[in-house]
Amino acid sequence: MQRHPLVMTSAAALAATVAAALATFLATPANAADAAPPSKEARGKYLVATSGCHDCHTPLKLGPNGPEPDLARMLSGHPEQLVMPPAPALPPGPWGMVSAATNTAHAGPWGTSFTANLTPDAETGLGRWTSKDFVQTIRTGRHMGRGRAVLPPMPIPAYNNMTDEDLEAVFAYLRTVPAIRNRVPEPLAPSAATAQK
Known about the structure:
Number of domains: 2
Strand content: 5-15%
Largest sheet: 3 strands, antiparallel
């Protein structure tokens, strides 16, 4: 019996396709848990993006559709050239704080706080910090784990749920972002204008 050449070619092509698919299947992890874990920096980038760090530490600017992150100043905190006037008085009632249009300055019963520069600038950011300083800041709620209190609205209680490995990953990622020289003002003590009666 003579076979048709087209049938043989089709059968050979099918066999080659099945073999290639099988090789790909066997080389691909069965699930994501079998895949290589992301780098510490990649994990940190994911945590920064999903934990709201940009919400306060990247200043907002007015874009065509309203406020948007100013990525030229990514994670650099409150702009040093933006000198804030005294905070407006909080009215009696449930209002707890007022915030600048950049979302980098916040005033309430604690006084006025300015979001920190998280870039690796050695003079004005985290450039001289160690991973241990960063982890201890979150764990203690104190600057570098031993200085002044970290003020609202920084969600220290929420971030305390992160593991040390997660916090170390966040710090590792922050070391990779562009360093931006931006000296953030020191916090201001409460005044009658910002304290709720």
